[in-house]
């Protein structure tokens, strides 16, 4: 069988190496090379989706297993179930759009080449993490991913980019080191052998209650930082404010989903008793994240920080859905991971286009733009409405699935979280009002240009996909239904056994 997943991991990594190896004169074509690599990657993702058997979406497909370090039982083991499939498609879709969105950001060829190579390397790690079936491999990729992200944040962005990069790195390393303790402890609880870290071999282990709960907490903390959840979220607004919008779009829309992806595929799947034990406290912090993120978003003047806080709120809804442990809520959470990527990625891109025109993210410096750039205003409004889960757009479907599905398990949490939906309308519509309504701008601000063809190519496909999945959500829900059923059944069996 053709090793499509290994190829999808290797292709962008080799593309990054190729960019770094380009001689000085050829670096002027770095954008075209990077875009071609990511376009091929997107084609492979479409092939992966087309050949995926939705009737067996709960099992790993396109599996590859090769011995890596047999002395400690690690393997190069890749495979995707329905949840991993959606995340890989999202990664492959947003990466070329991020390259197009920042097409004119660097005038220096060497600097541009370095940035694009780091983007490609990040894509390789994204694909690898969402396809990893070996816990040790997952951990290595989870930590290695910090390298390109650190340089993307610290080398390209605002005045405090180095501070933001260090803050991001410290938070991530702290979570990763705690997770490493959990990985080592899990090894000693497992069956051993040359495939000791395969997730299939670690599912259903007979561990003591104390051991399972401690290992669960080690994994969960790392994923909560990545998600990000209150109170370990503070790195995100700092990064969003200082990194490039394209970098932040990939970070929040895709890479932060590693947190919720890890909760679903590792925390709950490997430690169901501990997940059930910890669920009430986790749901409490999820609800706090929903309300806190929405309230903080309303008070932001910087549009990039605003979008970051909206994501804190949305991640809270995802975590609520996961740990409510009902079929509908888990399906909704997994579907929301994909939809949030479309919506938030588009939000960061369109805010980036505004900043490119005005040179500032401060909403108080805008006003009346709908009179000058009506297409840009309308596009921003539709994308903003997706963030508040307007019916007809795909985020609405996933959000309502979480809230309705979780109601039977956590009524109070759902009622309080529903307030976050109301607050979302405030932060989206107030921002639109400040930026696009009011008297027509004068002087240079009256000459701001409309969306270019390249910018429309970045934004409009994301809107079209949200509309498609808003009316035909089954296209994606079919991929997460069986994995969600397996997760709920695993936790339910533990609950019944207790």
Give an account of the 3D structure.
By secondary structure, the protein is mainly α. The protein has one domain. Helix content is 73%, strand content 3%. It contains 20 helices and 2 strands. Strands 1-2 form a two-stranded antiparallel sheet. Strand 1 and strand 2 form a beta hairpin. Helix 3 runs antiparallel to helix 11. The mean pLDDT is 92.
Distance between the amino and carboxyl termini = 43 Å
Largest sheet: 2 strands, antiparallel
Contiguous runs where pLDDT drops below 50 for at least 5 residues: none
Structural class: mainly alpha
Number of strands: 2
Radius of gyration over C-alpha positions, nearest whole angstrom: 22 Å
Number of domains: 1
Q: What is the number of helices? A: 20
The ordered H/E elements are HHEEHHHHHHHHHHHHHHHHHH
Binned, the helix content reads over 70%
In what order do the strands lie side by side in the largest sheet?
1-2
Mean pLDDT: 92
Strand residue content = under 5%
Shape: globular
């Amino acid at each position: 069988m053709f090793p499509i997943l290994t190829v999808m991991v290797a292709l962008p990594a080799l593309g990054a190496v190729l960019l770094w190896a380009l001689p000085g004169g050829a670096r002027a074509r770095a954008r075209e090379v990077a875009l071609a690599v990511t376009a091929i990657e997107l084609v492979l993702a479409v092939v992966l989706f087309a050949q995926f058997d939705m009737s067996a979406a709960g099992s790993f497909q396109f599996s590859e297993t090769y011995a890596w370090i047999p002395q400690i039982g690690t393997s190069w083991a890749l495979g995707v179930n329905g949840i991993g499939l959606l995340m890989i498609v999202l990664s492959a879709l947003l990466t070329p759009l991020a390259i197009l969105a920042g097409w004119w950001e660097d005038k220096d060829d060497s600097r541009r080449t370095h940035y694009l190579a780091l983007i490609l390397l990040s894509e390789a790690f994204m694909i690898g993490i969402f396809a990893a079936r070996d816990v040790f491999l997952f951990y290595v990729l989870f930590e290695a991913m910090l390298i390109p992200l650190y340089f993307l944040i610290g080398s390209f962005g605002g005045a405090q980019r180095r501070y933001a990069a260090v803050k991001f790195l410290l938070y991530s390393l702290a979570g990763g080191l705690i997770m490493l303790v959990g990985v080592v402890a899990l090894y000693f609880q497992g069956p051993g052998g040359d495939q000791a870290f395969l997730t299939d071999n670690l599912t259903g282990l007979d561990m003591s209650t104390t051991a399972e709960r401690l290992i669960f907490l080690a994994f969960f903390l790392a994923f909560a930082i990545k998600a990000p959840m209150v109170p370990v979220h503070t790195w995100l607004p700092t990064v969003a404010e200082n990194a490039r919008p394209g970098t932040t779009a990939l970070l929040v829309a895709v890479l932060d989903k590693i947190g919720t992806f890890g909760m679903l595929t590792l925390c709950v799947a490997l430690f169901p008793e501990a997940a059930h034990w910890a669920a009430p406290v986790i749901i409490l912090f999820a609800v706090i994240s929903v309300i806190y993120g929405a309230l903080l978003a309303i008070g932001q003047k910087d549009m990039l920080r605003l979008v970051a806080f909206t994501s804190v709120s949305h991640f809270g809804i995802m975590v609520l859905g996961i740990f409510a442990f009902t079929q509908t809520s888990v399906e909704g959470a997994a579907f929301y991971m994909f939809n949030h990527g479309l919506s938030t990625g588009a939000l960061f891109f369109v805010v980036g286009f505004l900043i490119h025109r005005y040179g500032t993210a401060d909403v108080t410096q805008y006003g009346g733009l709908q009179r000058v750039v009506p297409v840009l205003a309308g596009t921003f409004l539709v994308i903003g409405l997706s963030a508040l889960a307007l019916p007809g757009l795909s985020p609405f479907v996933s959000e309502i699935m979480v809230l309705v599905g979780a109601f039977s398990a956590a009524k109070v949490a759902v009622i309080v979280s529903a307030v976050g939906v109301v607050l979302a309308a405030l932060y989206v519509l107030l921002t639109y009002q400040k930026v696009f309504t009011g008297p027509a701008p004068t002087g240079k601000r009256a000459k701001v240009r409309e969306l270019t063809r390249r910018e429309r190519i970045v934004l409009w496909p994301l809107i079209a996909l949200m509309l498609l999945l808003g009316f035909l959500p089954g296209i994606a829900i079919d991929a997460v239904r069986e994995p969600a059923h397996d997760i709920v059944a695993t936790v339910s069996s533990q609950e019944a056994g207790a």
